[in-house]
Amino acid sequence: MSDVNAILLLSCADSKGIVAKISDFIFRRNGNIVHADQYTSKTDKLFFMRIEWELNGFALGRDEISAAFAPLAKQFKMKWDLHFTDYMPRMAIFVSKHLHCLHDLILRRHMGELASDVEAVISNHTDARDLVEQFGLKFFHFPITDKNKKQQEAKELKLLREMNIDLVVLARYMQVLSGNFLKYYPDKIINIHHSFLPAFAGGNPYQQAYNRGVKIIGATGHYVTAQLDEGPIIAQDVIKISHRDAVDAIQRKSKDLERIVLARALHLHLENRILVYGSKTIVFE
Amino acid sequence: MSDVNAILLLSCADSKGIVAKISDFIFRRNGNIVHADQYTSKTDKLFFMRIEWELNGFALGRDEISAAFAPLAKQFKMKWDLHFTDYMPRMAIFVSKHLHCLHDLILRRHMGELASDVEAVISNHTDARDLVEQFGLKFFHFPITDKNKKQQEAKELKLLREMNIDLVVLARYMQVLSGNFLKYYPDKIINIHHSFLPAFAGGNPYQQAYNRGVKIIGATGHYVTAQLDEGPIIAQDVIKISHRDAVDAIQRKSKDLERIVLARALHLHLENRILVYGSKTIVFE
Amino acid sequence: MSDVNAILLLSCADSKGIVAKISDFIFRRNGNIVHADQYTSKTDKLFFMRIEWELNGFALGRDEISAAFAPLAKQFKMKWDLHFTDYMPRMAIFVSKHLHCLHDLILRRHMGELASDVEAVISNHTDARDLVEQFGLKFFHFPITDKNKKQQEAKELKLLREMNIDLVVLARYMQVLSGNFLKYYPDKIINIHHSFLPAFAGGNPYQQAYNRGVKIIGATGHYVTAQLDEGPIIAQDVIKISHRDAVDAIQRKSKDLERIVLARALHLHLENRILVYGSKTIVFE
Amino acid sequence: MSDVNAILLLSCADSKGIVAKISDFIFRRNGNIVHADQYTSKTDKLFFMRIEWELNGFALGRDEISAAFAPLAKQFKMKWDLHFTDYMPRMAIFVSKHLHCLHDLILRRHMGELASDVEAVISNHTDARDLVEQFGLKFFHFPITDKNKKQQEAKELKLLREMNIDLVVLARYMQVLSGNFLKYYPDKIINIHHSFLPAFAGGNPYQQAYNRGVKIIGATGHYVTAQLDEGPIIAQDVIKISHRDAVDAIQRKSKDLERIVLARALHLHLENRILVYGSKTIVFE
Predict the structure, then answer these.
(1) pTM for the predicted model, two decimal places
(2) What residues make up the domain containing C52?
């Protein structure tokens, strides 16, 4: 007997009867709904929904659901995705020289908290190699220069495809990915930015925060889009600082935030709780 | 054309088809659902739901909904309440000598933020009288002694009934209400406790927090039950303190918290977002 | 017997012996130091100090301290100010149409929490008049148009001078003060900005926050300088929001923050805990 | 040329001239004070101070300071400790089965953020062995039963003494240390408690928090004393939860808190910023 659940994430123009039709679709096939949440944007007249039900006892096999649901989806012109809770995305982590977020993800995987397989760690430096290999993971080194960037990205993409990677995490990766790279992973690349976006976008946010004299710093987990630091925000958190905190203290405090915020954003993604909507996210917590 | 919504708050044993049946009930009568949220307690196998839809275009008049819904409610043995968004609860505020929460509620009413009519302010002291009357509200003085407590409560209850009060807010009221009083207002009395419950329950939590040397203090908004300080918690928040904060500084910082936490709890109640479940709350934010 | 304290706020180039010389200055005159805090900026080699001692038993009268301290200040080329804890700054509050911060300050004054006299409330609108006069305070209406701005500011300045105002609080005042106005009140004008600066500087930060889809909003209390929204930050705080919070909900949540952050910034100023240093503050909490 | 600083932590009855005498002591020997902070408890008439100065250029060698300072300390009947910023305490970490805090400390040591040598990891279980040895640290297994507890503690103490351990961190160690053990490490044992003390002291705070229905959970870093969960609190932090968080979700969220709060408490201890005062701490941040 399976304890796997199915999850539908969908959006469409708002209209009467959507909830009724969807829940009826599940009920008639003997599905038990364990979570349903919806949001209607009044300004844009759009409807968003996450609905999760048990496959155990459900009349359809998991391979049959999409076909059965398609007519209803078509009727309401939905954008929709179907997920199953036993699917573990195949994740690649990109990192440069700051390893705290990488280390944190490895720890969470080690503790069984990460519903994802870490298939590869990719870096433009070699600082992470020992740590990664120590935990039995695969490390790939793609040094990036102004000249070789395009070729290296092509090699990285090839590797990702060969490994069937379907989720990329930028765990303090200090290279900008090209638009070409991004189009292969729409809403599938999560970055941690070490500031409270949109404050201190761009380079060296620790120094920027110090210079401005803010009393609070933050970190932002977001999907990566072609507009740098403007991707849809998934999670943010902050911590207080004071005039006593020089740039190194700001960095030390921020690193704790970054680890937690990235993990939180990743967790929400892995539980299929996020719908991207323009430059924003709907997060069904 | 009405822009009033109906809200159903319900709970029952978990069972397949509840969501489908309820949303179908609304859909068949041409209702547009604007918010639906549910929660299933796996340990207790209980189902909780809040569903809100527009009356505009709905096939039933507001007086007909209860009767029409009753058979479905009976089928699933639901506990349920039906609310309308244009109903303004008639509120009485109880206060003693600390007036910051009272003042805050008056301010919010003044700014149109409080979806409730403040019908009366009741106090065992007279400190609040001037402020209350200055804002054109009714003030009632019921001094309490060990001897007259029972009689005074009876008078207060009589007054509340005469004024058709259906929500009581204890905005730092330093008298314990009797079980007899409480039974007239089940889940309809909201108290602000000036600590992060269950820490520092009982008297003088500021002093207790100071003595213990905690680094964070809190405030708790909760429904009042016969077990003092053990009622279902609606909202909590905290603020950092340090060794420099003597009892008076703790009090000053706490007062800001108390105002906000009480307002937040009250707001959730007035929007009919809370289901009480044993000694806990389900809050559909 | 007096229970007044003296407070020295000073800054100078860092140098050995400053703490020793200053504390010796106080000790030799039989002063009891109740608070001393210092900060040395290593990058700028600057020294900042706040030192507070009891006048009770001190060898010098309050009028004699400045002259006695001047030689030491000269030796270290200090910038310094001497304050006394019984001095109540004479405050004017500027406000436009949003009255929550004004109302909050009036409440705090009413509760005896504000170590300042509210001498006047000045507005470019009349919305605040009733509230202000209801509490027995003076209200002045200076409507501002594109044409009369300069003249009205001149009148406002004249009024402030006649009333000996030495602290101006912009409690959601939606007009930009001219550089001419500002030069009369250097580090004496405190503004509350309804965003987490530097994010969403400029107009309509609620809408900006909504558009960007941030998960946290903030408020900032700062001194006003000629560079709009770039003055030295005194205090900041934040609150979480979600996709469900439309602009009006963001506004409602932000208003609570604004009241608290402005009050906190003002409290720090009134206790003479702030040294301004370039575009930043040193806050000796 | 040394860049080591000396730090004095001291407390005594409050009295005039202490700050002047201490800063004069340093100044006359050509010391440059880089941090000085003090606190006077008015209720207890006690004076607390932390003062840090550069040894570079100081007239006394580090071995001469104590003898030179002793007369002044005697005059004011001070309790005092002298520390040097280049001293790395020799730390032992105790852990049971939950490894997140241990893993976090190892990460921080790996990143050079921990001003301490991790000399040994001691556990009553073997779950941590692989991780510990993988990072080249020493692991010791002391299984505890009702019968052997006293003997095992004696062996642990012997080991700690042989390794010259001067700081013990209980990183989720689920055994209660005896009073005999504690007396060898007064204010030198730091524990992380997985609740917001004093709420949910004792066993299984996650379950307790779930049962009570709190909306916020916390973690507490504190020194260990004979009264379980009543030691002086060093650091606390909190995180919001909702009715949706079952015990396992509470645990997952709490673990992030515990790691950060323990690290923060440890950091404050390692920078010699804490004075213990009865059952409370003075933390000079």
Answers:
(1) 0.95
(2) 5-84
